[in-house]
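thought: fold this chain, then report.
action: predict
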Amino acid sequence: MSSTQLQSAPPRTPPQQQHRRRRLTTNASHYILWALSLIVIVGSVVPVVAASLWSTPLYETGGHLTWDNFQTLLTDRSWWTAVTNSILFAALNTVGSIVVGVACAVFLTRTDIPGRRVLTTLLLVPIALPGLVLIIGWAAMWTPAGFASSWLQTNTPLSMPVNLYSIPGMAMVAMSVASPTVFLLCRGTLLSIDPSLEDAARTSGASPLRSLLTVSLPLMRPAIVNAALLVFALSMEVLGLPLILGFSSKISLISTYLYDHWVNDSQQGLVSAGAVFLLVAVSGLLVLRNRLVGDTARFNTTTGKPTGVRTLQLGAWRWAATAAIALFLLVFVAVPLAGVVMTAFTSILSPFISPWSVLTLDNFSAVLDNSLYTNSITNSLLIAGIGGAVTTIVIAVLSVVAHRSAFRFRGSLQQGMLWPRMMPALVTGMAFFWSFALLDRSGALRTSLWGIGIAFAVRSLALGYSAFYPALAGIGADLDNAARTSGATWWKTMRTIVFRLVTPAMGASFVLLFVAMLNDAEPAVFLVTDKTPVLGLTMLQLAATSIGGTVAALGVIQMVITSLVLGAGRALLGVRPRA
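observation:
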């Protein structure tokens, strides 16, 4: 009779101790990632505050704590003029953008006007293209001596009613970019409202128009408030628009005040104090937003999933509504874009000379023959390509720690990734300038493309996170639990399951980051050198002196690159422009 010899199994670590050891290792990595990310994202602001309270630049020895920078700032009449102009500009831009954006959202989403799909696509074009390109187009076409305004005055009884070299004129230009953002935010809310609520009002005797105004529009209050405060905050930090259109009229905003005193006067402590003021103002807007909106649950509908979108029948008025929206798009989008292209491909743009008789490629030859311009394009492509890829990976890693782990400080990591959205671009650039000045005394990092890339990456972090997180939130936790019960560590679970499932979302995030980092300019003001020019800032500085064929050619190149990247992203990954 055979016997089976039993062998003792090798000693194993008790499951509880093994789980504890793995958990400790995972937690340690989470703490390291949390600390590094918050230091880079949020901690970079600390040197700006320190520079505003120090008597000498931080890279110099000596110095002491002082309030002189703030005292000089608050007693400067030109500073208060810039603040007043900025508030007026932001208010005009906000009011106009809200009126146009909300109206377009209602008409293009809830009415039966013809051509809604085409009009919606054209309305979103300014979001997909670099903002500086539109500004150049406005300057070429709608300034008092512009092609379109001069043609109207010569051939028709019409004329441009607003002078672009004024605060109302600059606000009108800003509306071409801000109103599509308002449209997107309000359109999403309108699509989510259950039409049965309006049906209930209709059964009580309300007309279709009254049910829309009394039921659906009040439910849009959070979206309208968010859009208004977002537009107002972005208006406070805009630099390219006042630098191009406000310079000739000596109109100074907060951004141009800081830019001028940094570049021309080298008053770095004063500028740091102004940056702190701007940061506090934008932070206050977020607090105001929370108080105005209050409990967002008051605006939620509880009737379940909407069954469809009801369209309001406008009758004969639908053609008038279509004509009004088409006229807006013609003046605010089509004509400026045509102006950029016409300026780039002609030797001179004048309503008294046929553009077909002065067609030329000399402007593009001038760009390709100038090392400054070619280096700017190359550097921006490198920053956008490498920086966008690295930032995408960082966003993916931080997102799974913030949303797929039991890390105790994951909430602060979520808020930290959204922090750059509220930090003005000029403050971001200044923050990294002072951080590099303190940590990199040799200046090797600050004067390299890596320094600019880090600033651009932090600036665009919230955008990439907003594109990535919805896909991550759509993956059920049961997949994680199944892998963990099979013995996989937390990091192995993320690497082998979650990251593979969110690969399309990472691709979408990369496309949006690439476009944002390619077109960014403001953070580079404090970091760029003669050896590290970037496309956005080079165009901004060139456009600030003159709107000629060369800067228009650069704008066309920038527009083509952006369109190709977004087109490829949409074809491969379904990426669409979004706020």
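thought: worth noting. Residues 198 and 215 are 6 Å apart (CA to CA).
final: tokens above.
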